């Protein structure tokens, strides 16, 4: 680590450039770190490595570095650093998970590489590591989301994803969309009409206009904002629309 004339921490800039331009599926290895996995079986490891490919953690623990050359891995030296989950399972932190399989966002093989890299002295535990991100973000060496850097050496990574604008978006013109029409559940109880103008109108048990409001589609997700003020959610799965326990098809 070194400090530039502007006071910015320099930390593995070559590795950042390699990760950002990694379109070939090369493995990425963060090595020689203290890792707070939050997995009750694995626990905390020192002098350990975190290996991921794309958006999947494939290995955690000491000794993975020995295969880095064989696998053409991008290596990030984390000497003096702690790696902690960036997505925190507060229920697990409070001891409220009864089974290991219930833990959310652990740094475990098979999970998504969402993590922070923070100097050891600022990361006594997961809570303090996350607090560093919120209160002293310039001290965070890396914030990685689904395997892609978001922050690096205390600054935003160029081209990083940005949050959607706050507020209710304008309705999209869905004329011609195959998802516009009347969706009917298997028991013919719920009829949900999605209009091209971004409005929905539900008939329930023969009762018209039971719920009405606006909707937005993002990929296979549909969000509803009812005129009564509440929000709801659904998901398109093939030719079905799943919403609030109902499974519907276009009528």
Automatic annotation (TrEMBL):
Species name: Streptomyces cellulosae
InterPro entries tied to this protein: Atu4866-like_sf, Metal-dep_hydrolase_composite, Uncharacterised_Atu4866
Top-level taxon of the source organism: Bacteria
Protein's name in the database: Atu4866 domain-containing protein
Matches recorded under SUPFAM superfamilies: Composite domain of metallo-dependent hydrolases
């Amino acid at each position: 680590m070194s400090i530039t004339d502007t006071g910015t921490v320099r930390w593995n800039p070559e590795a950042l450039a390699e990760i950002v331009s990694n379109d070939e599926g090369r493995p990425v290895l963060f090595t020689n770190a203290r890792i707070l996995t939050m997995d009750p079986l694995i626990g905390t490891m020192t002098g350990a490595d975190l290996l991921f490919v794309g958006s999947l953690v494939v290995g955690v623990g000491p000794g993975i570095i020995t295969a880095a050359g064989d696998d053409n891995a991008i290596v990030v030296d984390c000497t003096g650093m702690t790696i902690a989950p960036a997505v925190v399972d507060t229920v697990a932190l409070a001891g409220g998970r009864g089974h290991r399989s219930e833990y959310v966002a652990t740094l475990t093989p098979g999970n998504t590489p969402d993590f922070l890299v923070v100097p050891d002295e600022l990361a006594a535990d997961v809570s303090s590591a996350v607090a560093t991100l919120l209160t002293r973000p310039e001290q965070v060496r890396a914030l990685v989301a689904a395997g892609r850097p978001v922050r690096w050496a205390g600054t935003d990574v160029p081209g990083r994803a940005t949050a959607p604008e706050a507020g209710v978006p304008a309705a999209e013109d869905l004329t011609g969309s195959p998802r516009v029409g009347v969706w009917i559940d298997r028991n013919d109880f719920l009829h949900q009409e999605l209009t091209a103008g971004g409005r929905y109108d539900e008939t329930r048990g023969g009762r018209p206009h039971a719920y009405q409001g606006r909707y937005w589609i993002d990929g296979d997700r549909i969000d509803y904002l009812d005129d009564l003020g509440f929000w709801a959610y659904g998901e398109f799965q093939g030719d079905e629309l799943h919403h609030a326990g109902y499974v519907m098809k276009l009528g």
